[in-house]
Amino acid sequence: MFLSSAFAQTVETPVEHAGEAAQHAKGVFPPFDFSYYESHIFWLIICFGLFYIIISRIIVPRIGGTIEIRRDRIASDHDKAERMNMERESAIASYERELSEARSRAIAIAQSSADEIRGKIDEERKKSEAELDKKLAESEERIKKIRDGAMGNVNKIAETTAAEIVEQLIGTKVSASQATAAVKSVSGVE
């Protein structure tokens, strides 16, 4: 077995090397002492080699496997998110298309209802106008009869009144035919 001389010195009896230990106690720190340099390099290479083997054969493959698992999971989640995004976009497009169709159907229904109502209103208006025209013609006829009757009465009243006025002013009685002729000549009715 390859041991450092510093370790060998400590194993030996302290009496034999008491002088040398005293010299080392006063001198250099043992890891920095060049007399043990070969032993330090040997153990450094062995420890570094063991650490390298442990890291390269055990730790790095485990970390690499974990990284691969995570990368695969991230890729899978990304693909799933892309699929869901495409499904969402197609659902939105479908919803927009159906909403547009529903709006156009609603507009068509509203337009046909409005046209139907407008037709009924026009029909009712025409009926009402016809009834009003008929009632207006009947009313005008009645007014004409009443006016003619009133004018006839006015003429008679005017004849009677004119005969009485002439009688009171002049004192002579006027015949009904003379009073009628006088009122007709003044009123312009023949």
Structural class: mainly alpha
Give Rg in angstroms. Answer: 67 Å
Report on the biggest sheet: none
SSE pattern, N- to C-terminal: HHHH
Beta strands, count: 0
Mean pLDDT: 83
Assign a percent range to the helix content. over 70%
- Overall geometry comes to rod-shaped
* Helix count from the secondary structure assignment: 4
Low-confidence stretches: none
Rounded to the nearest angstrom, the distance between the terminal CA atoms is 167 Å
Strand content: under 5%
Question: How do you describe this structure in short?
Answer:
This protein has a domain at 152-187. The protein is built from four helices and no strands. The protein has helices at 5-11, 18-26, 37-170, 176-187.
Summarize the structure in words.
It is found in: Cell inner membrane; Cell membrane. It is a single-pass membrane protein. The chain crosses the membrane at residues 41-60. This is ATP synthase subunit b. Helix content is 85%, strand content 0%. With 190 residues, the chain is an all-alpha fold. The chain has a domain at 152-187.
Helices and strands in order:
Elements: H1 5-11, H2 18-26, H3 37-170, H4 176-187
Helix pairs in contact: 3-4
